[in-house]
Amino acid sequence: MKYHHEKIEAKWQHYWAQNQTFAATNQSDKPKYYVLDMFPYPSGAGLHVGHPLGYIASDIVARYKRHKGFNVLHPQGYDSFGLPAEQYAIQTGQHPEKTTRENIARYREQLDKIGFSFDWSREVRTSNPDYYKHTQWIFIQLFNSWYNLETDKAEDISELISIFQKAGNATVKAVCDDDTEIFFPSDWNAYSEEKKQQILLKYRLTYLAETEVNWCPALGTVLANDEIVNGVSERGGHPVIRKKMTQWSMRISAYAERLLQGLDTIDWSESIKESQRNWIGKSVGAMVKFKVQNPQPATRNSELFIDVFTTRPDTIFGVTFMTLAPEHELVSQITTPEQKAAVDAYVEATAKRSERDRMADVKTISGVFTGAYAEHPFTKEPIPVWIGDYVLAGYGTGAVMAVPCGDERDYAFANFFKGQNGMPEIKNIFNQDISQEAFAAKDGFELVNSDFLNGLGYKEGTQKAIEALEQIGQGKGKTNYRLRDAVFSRQRYWGEPFPVYYVNGLPQMIDSKYLPIVLPEVEKYLPTEDGQPPLGNATHWAWDSVQCSVVSNQLIDHKTIFPLELNTMPGWAGSSWYWMRYMDAHNDTEFASADALKYWENVDLYIGGSEHATGHLLYSRFWNKFLKDKGFAPTEEPFKKLINQGMILGMSAFVYRSEDSKKLYSKGLIAGEKVHPIHVDLSVINDITNELDIDAFKNHPLYSDYKDAEFILENGKYIVGREVEKMSKSKYNVVNPDDICEQYGADTLRLYEMFLGPLEQAKPWNTAGITGVSGFLKKLWRLYFDDNGLIVTNDEPTADMYKTLHKTIKKVTEDIENFSFNTSVSQFMICVNELAQQKCRHRAILEPLAIIVSPYAPHIAEELWEQLGHQGSIATVAFPVFEEKYLVESEKEYPVSFNGKMRFTIKLPLDLTAAQIEEIVMADERTQQQLQGRTPNKVIIVPGKIINLVG
After folding, report:
1. Per-residue pLDDT at 623
2. Which single residue of 161, 428, 786, 824 could bond 815 by disulfide (Cβ 3.0 to 4.6 Å)?
3. Distance separating alpha carbons of residues 185 and 376, to the nearest angstrom
């Protein structure tokens, strides 16, 4: 009976689907275990063999936990809104919904072929209205909430209004905009409704504000920092500029401290935690106000101040200049006429660089003097004000008090512009040498040239400086965070519509009972001719506040019918809460019931890429904490344990074209030749021998330019070059998992991906290595069957068979618990080899072996289980328990040596004494042969280790 993987795998995939084998229940006496993969985006390219790596690992854990008696939730769905589908729609005119649906069908087909134990009954798609109505609902909750610093949580906006009515805002401890004015209850009660709404926007957890954004003119949309690579859009490689726009933002900064503290409570890698800590960027110091001297005529009647946050207020007397971000709002107000042209040119050039590029570029020094001066808060000396692109408007206050003697970047800036107008000499305030570099340490110094701070160190100097700043009203102690509020608007079509309409330019929320507000049809997916987002093309996109429905734009009268929001939500909106929807995926009235949320709580194991460290993972934690505050989420953190899987790299192939002709040199002949490597599609090479199929290459549409090329062969063959790179369609090194499943089987693919190396590490794909894993499965099959059928017996196994089995149970159990899947595959191979040598045909060994293999190679395990006479699926059969007694050695094979040279071995019970061992060895005829009648001078015996006869 032969092993036919294609029949077996199709049979069991159909069985699982028909019987809903992996459907989880929200009520169970079993302990729960929730394992989740990061939300996949269904691209048109489908899966390559690198994509399933994390899914296979999570599936092994899910299957193992079912065997161990857990009620396992292992769902799957699609993060189906996003820019790629919209760009494809622009190019082809096809509706993004259509292409997304087709891509999802392709993904589902591929995922099913690999045999994942997903609970498909809970599938979600972020682009479905029945899903995004809940995203819209969460947005409304955020809009109707503020952050109370006294209770350290989000509360309903109605409570804040009540405080304003009774006491104004002077004593309110809340997270709000820095420019929020102080008012008394009499003021509040006298304000117009419009004025009240404007004030409340300064407190709401989602709000409208003019914000510096990454604007991509070619894509017609705002991009997040993680959507920009090397200053251009990740999608399409288009230029990105900084631009001020009125945008929706999320007040994630309110949660900065809780996001930091929460990292200590979760089982994530230190590298991911550190990425988040750095992104949040907590720093303790002081906010200092520097008064602008002699403001320009347009602002002469009002006092202007430059606010600076510094972690080193002790160095206040070392300030010799200030630097503003080029985008800082004061730049245009304080720049002198003489400097205007230079400043304008610099600001324009900086707008073309992304924040990420500016942060990363520590070598380039550039800046321009504004011509303006600020006043030192204590000495009243003039301090020149510069602009420089190393200062970012979105970090701190967008202004730096430069202390060159104590900061390397300030030191370099001051020396670069040394001698120029507006750049004073560096002033040293430390009793340390700064002739070669700045002194940046926080200890080992005393302050000098620092007035009332002279003789103090960092700690005492900081405290005294803050006290003095507070006394003169020009500063105060403050804890600051680098974390900025997240821009939440996108000028795109294919995203969640905001449940927002506008009355007199102010946002109004649509009542939750009328959700979802469904994405309208549009003729074009591009921005309008006057620069509005794509929804500006919609003709049926206005809100009737009486009928409570979406109506024609032509009916807008600004009395009862108003314009709807034209922006859509970003890609991270739907993915910031999706794990909760899986808990209760078909609930029509709420995003998940309280009972379902209480039962599942949060994700026990989350597997995905490290590239989401400061995007998705941070936003998800923020939304989870908010929903916890509002009484919906049961836990503070969404994901208990996080594992970042490494990347499977592709093995690219190259031909080598000479620079001055169409000669193509084989790999072994390029030495000394000037050649240009050209990526080759893997379909035209033999992946094992690396030989190019020249005819196939010439006839391939990608290489039509080389039909007449001369191929320089070695030994009559053209051998391509190989190199490990990121697996990518553009490098033609993508391997389709469908091809592997068809040729070798899904179980082989699953085992091989785990066998490649530790889950967290990057590793190259090599199809040639897969044959060994395929051979292992055939060898496993032959333990159970010969040509005539099942050969399993009910005989009692030998001690060695039990030892092999329990050694494997122990190893595989430990490996899965420690997520060391690659070493399990090695152990399976050792186990099968040993059992084959032992001629094991014993049910007591082979039944538990099928269960142990099941998480890794579920199809063959199911078939073996059925052939052994069992009904139903193997999926929930109890996992074998390791028993130590089978590994306890009762005998020892001793090497017997004569004068240090081993001559033979002898098996003896381990409980023998040294005297008993000596008696048995001396009586052995092989000993007598070696001694030839002699009596040894000494017999050295260490029980359990050595036997050595000397002399």
Report:
1. 98
2. 824
3. 37
Mapping DSSP onto H, E and C, the string for 298-345 reads: HHCCCCCEEEEEECCHHHHHHCCEEEECCCCCCHHHHCCHHHHHHHHH
DSSP assignment of 740-763: HHHHT-HHHHHHHHHHTS-TTS-E
For 438: left if phi > 0, alpha if psi spans -120 to 50, otherwise beta; the answer is beta
DSSP letter assigned to residue 852: H
Supply the pTM of this predicted model: 0.86
Query: Would you state the pLDDT for residue 218?
Result: 81
Closest of 473, 412, 456 to residue 437, by C-alpha: 412
Distance CA 498, CA 394 (A): 25
CB atoms within 10 A of CB 693: 14
Q: Quote the CA–CA distance of 218 and 238 in Å, as a whole number.
A: 6
Would you tell me the crossing angle of helices 770-784 and 858-867 to the nearest 10 degrees?
A: 10
Can you say which residues are annotated as belonging to the binding site for ATP? 729
CA distance 248 to 490: 9
Report residue 397 as tokens. Answer: 């206050």
Beta strands at 763-764 and 710-712: parallel, antiparallel or unpaired: unpaired
677/531 Cα distance (integer angstroms): 43
User: What integer pLDDT is reported at residue 768 of this predicted model?
Assistant: 81
Compute the CA torsion angle 577, 582, 583, 588 (nearest 10 deg). Answer: 90
| Tokens representing residue 548 in the block | 């409570």
Cβ 307 vs Cβ 398: under 8 Å: no
Contact 740, 49 (CB under 8 A): yes
pLDDT value of residue 222: 79
Torsion angle (degrees, nearest 10) of CA 574, 577, 578, 584: -130
Known binding-site residue numbers? 729
- In terms of Cβ atoms closer than 10 Å to its own Cβ (0-12, 13-18, 19+), residue 715 is exposed
Burial code of 293-331, b = ≥16 C-beta within 10 A, e = fewer?
Answer: bebbeeeeeeebebebbbebbbbbbbbbbbbbbbbbebb
Euclidean distance between CA atoms 120 and 125, whole angstroms: 12
Cβ-based neighbours of 878, under 8 Å, separated by 6 or more: 67, 68, 69, 851
The reported pLDDT for the residue numbered 300 is 59
**Contact at 8 Å (CB) between 398 and 392?**
yes
* 3-class DSSP assignment, residue 203: coil
Please identify every stretch of the chain with a pLDDT value under 50, giving residue numbers as ranges.
Answer: none
Say how far apart CA 502 and CA 565 lie, in whole Å: 7
- Classify residue 571 as exposed, middle or buried by CB count within 10 Å of its CB (0-12, 13-18, 19+): buried
Angle made by CA atoms 65, 70, 71, in degrees to the nearest 5: 115
Region for 869 from its dihedrals, namely left if φ exceeds 0, alpha if ψ lies in -120 to 50, beta otherwise: left
Residue 737 near residue 52 (C-beta atoms within 8 A): yes
Q: Are 137 and 515 in contact (CB under 8 A)?
A: yes
pLDDT of residue 398: 92
CA atoms within 13 A on the CB side of 897: 14
Is 322 within 8 Å of 403 (Cβ atoms)?
no
Question: What residue has token string 């921005």?
Answer: 527
- The two beta strands, 321-324 and 382-387, are parallel
What is the length of the chain? 951
In sequence order, what DSSP letters do the residues of 251-266 get, joined into one string? -GGGGHHHHHHHGGGS
CA dist 849 and 811 (Å) reads 13
Which two structure tokens, joined as six digits, stand for 908? 């003896």
> According to DSSP H, which parts of 372-437 are helical?
408-416
Residue 617's nearest CA partner among 585, 582, 641, 596 is: 641
| pLDDT at residue number 301 | 61
What whole-number distance in Å separates Cα of residue 105 and Cα of residue 680? 29
